[in-house]
């Protein structure tokens, strides 16, 4: 009799809970895998942008942003207030960092600056609202609005007229994205800037070192200086699942050290490539306009 009570009141509910948690975790993993995959595709497309963005490239960015918006909306509506959310956060953080890397890279390529955190959250909210989770419908005009907010500093510079701002307030919390996630994404951004600088090191029209590569190098050095000052002031700061902490953690601390080391390596690679081009005589920049020693 006692065994039967244990089975029905203890083991059976526990079994059902574990099965439900496993199914939820599998779905979150698939959603995050899609966010990660299409964020990488955004980055690949952005590496082809030189100067003004073309309709073809914008169309590719839109297609990937559309899928990301769907997955973000499902995460927000189905899992944000789930009882197991905290246990799923580490899985979500990995894909969110990749998405942040893609979004900040897009803004940097088009505007030459860091995507402000508030603007990033606004874009994410618009993406979530652009997909109706219950009806399985997209608002393409709102999706265009979100993408143009990401790419262009002002509406006058947008590439499409098929856009509209959200009717309702977008001041809702997106608790699965935290400031720590954003900072980790910024570290990864520098790697993409390094690759972009090396890929486009030569100005094909003038057959000289691309001035944009020098600007990228200057930006990376500025970011490295700023981050090192930050971590010098807070030496024990670490990030776990997007949450800042000042309690020393060997694993988290080593990750931050590795990120800073990777950033310095990216700077050295761009710097070395520019110097090599100069030494080989393939570079003919007017030194009155661009003084390499200032970079």
TrEMBL record:
Keyword list (alphabetical) reads: Cytoplasm, Nucleus
- UniProt main location, coarse: cytoplasm
The regions listed as transmembrane in this protein's record are none
Q: What does the record list as coiled-coil region(s)?
A: none
GO MF terms here are: sequence-specific DNA binding
Where does this polypeptide localize?
Cytoplasm; Nucleus
Q: Name one GO cellular component term.
A: cytoplasm
Under the heading InterPro entries, the entry gives: Translin_C, Translin_fam, Translin_N, Translin_sf
Q: Which family does it belong to?
A: Belongs to the translin family.
Q: What is this protein called?
A: Translin
| UniProt xrefs under Pfam families | Translin
Query: What does UniProt list as this organism's lineage?
Result: Eukaryota, Fungi, Dikarya, Ascomycota, Saccharomycotina
């Amino acid at each position: 009799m006692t065994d039967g009570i244990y089975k029905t009141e203890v083991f059976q509910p526990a079994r059902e809970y574990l099965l439900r948690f496993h199914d939820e975790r599998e779905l979150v993993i698939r959603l995050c895998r899609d966010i990660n995959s299409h964020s990488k595709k955004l980055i690949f497309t952005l590496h082809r942008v030189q100067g003004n963005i073309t309709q073809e490239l914008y169309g590719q960015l839109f297609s990937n942003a559309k899928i990301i918006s769907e997955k973000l909306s499902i995460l927000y509506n189905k899992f944000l207030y789930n009882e197991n959310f905290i246990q799923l956060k580490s899985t979500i953080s990995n894909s969110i960092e990749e998405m942040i890397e893609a979004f900040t890279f897009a803004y940097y390529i088009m505007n030459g600056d860091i995507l402000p955190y508030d603007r990033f959250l606004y874009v994410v909210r618009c993406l979530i609202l652009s997909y109706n989770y219950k009806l399985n419908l997209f608002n393409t005009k709102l999706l265009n609005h979100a993408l143009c907010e990401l790419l262009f500093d002002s509406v006058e510079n947008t590439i499409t007229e098929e856009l509209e701002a959200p009717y309702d307030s977008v001041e809702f919390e997106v608790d699965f994205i935290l400031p720590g996630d954003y900072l980790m994404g910024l570290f990864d951004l520098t790697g993409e800037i390094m690759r972009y600088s090396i890929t486009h090191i030569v100005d094909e029209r003038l057959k000289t070192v691309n001035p944009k590569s020098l600007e990228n190098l200057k930006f990376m050095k500025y970011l490295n200086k700023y981050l090192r000052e930050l971590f010098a002031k807070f030496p024990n700061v670490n990030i776990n699942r997007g949450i800042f902490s000042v309690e020393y953690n060997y694993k988290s601390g080593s990750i931050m050290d590795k990120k800073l080391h990777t950033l310095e390596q990216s700077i050295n690679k761009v710097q070395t490539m520019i110097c090599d081009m100069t030494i080989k005589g393939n570079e003919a920049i007017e030194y009155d306009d661009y003084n390499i020693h200032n970079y």
